[in-house]
Write a structure and sequence with these properties.
11% strand; alpha/beta; AB_hydrolase_fold; 6 strands; Rossmann fold; 274 residues; Alpha/beta-Hydrolases superfamily protein; hydrolase activity; two-stranded parallel ribbon; four-stranded parallel β-sheet; single chain
């Protein structure tokens, strides 16, 4: 389970419980914001991903107590988790026996293959501002749909303050990423991972959980990526939750989310038939 930027282990607990309730063991990997904004330009995160990849290889080399081969299923959140998945796939590329052990991938609020400063700025802004970010609000309360009205009291000023802060943060981050993402080394590393995700995914089912209301990842880009994967012959399922915010589909639609995941798991994981 590969978390969104700034996620903590406690945030992934309810998702882990979805899997453990179905008899599937789950581990989680999260990326703190400070690890991505450091002077090493993400090298610390890359080292952690490499360590995780090596641990997965070691785990896959063993068998279950009943002699069954072990397999992996990835559940990623936002583009951060999705890119971590891509980095793991890149590590596995030269070993087909490892790729064959990946049984499925769930992409929650991710799947935009573009190296877009606006998307990166929106993601980092949401991670930094947390509940103060408009990305956490339902579709009819986001920053894009709010207009500042003439002052009708101090409450209006207070309501405008978070929007002003977010606007300033977004503007600063966008300028930052316009520079960072064009750096040759950074661009090369990202392009390599995105190429793997676009063209060299394992031959296993993919499930995309997204929403039209997502203010971080453009839903149109996700849908285009889904179509590209289908054209490559991949087995792809998708569900548009419509109004739910970024990485918040399960909280807003728990029954629908669980049902979609349950149907998908039946395609990925062998079920004992009695």
């Amino acid at each position: 389970m590969l978390g969104w930027l700034g996620a903590e282990q406690k945030h992934l607990k309810r998702y882990i419980e979805l899997y453990t309730s179905k008899g599937i063991d789950a581990i989680s990997f999260v990326v703190p914001v400070r690890d991505m904004l450091g002077f090493d330009l993400g090298r610390k995160v890359e080292k952690r991903i490499l360590d995780l990849s090596e641990e997965l290889v070691s785990w896959l080399s063993e068998k279950e107590e009943d002699g069954r081969e072990r397999g992996l299923l990835f559940h990623t959140f936002s583009n951060t988790g999705w890119l971590v998945y891509g980095a793991i796939l890149d590590y596995f590329q030269s070993r087909s026996e490892l790729m064959e052990k990946i049984k499925g991938c769930v992409v929650d609020s991710g799947g935009d293959p573009n190296i877009d400063p606006q998307v990166w700025a929106a993601g980092f802004s949401a991670a930094l501002l947390k509940k103060r970010s408009s990305a956490t609000l339902p579709s009819d309360q986001g920053i894009e749909r709010q207009e500042l009205q003439p002052d009708k009291g101090s409450s209006k000023v207070q309501d405008a303050e978070p929007l002003l802060l977010e606007t300033l943060v977004l503007a600063g981050l966008e300028k930052f990423f316009c520079f960072i993402l064009k750096m040759p080394d950074v661009n090369r590393r990202l392009t390599k991972i995105i190429t793997t995700l676009s063209k060299n995914q394992p031959d296993c089912p993919q499930l995309y959980l997204y929403s039209t209301a997502d203010k971080v990842i453009p839903f149109g880009q996700v849908e285009m990526f889904i179509q590209d994967q289908k054209m490559l012959g991949r087995k792809v399922w998708a569900c548009n939750f419509g109004s739910s915010p970024h990485v918040d589909h399960y909280r807003n639609f728990p029954e629908k989310y669980s049902a979609e995941l349950h149907k998908f798991l039946k395609e990925c994981v062998p079920v004992d038939r009695k």
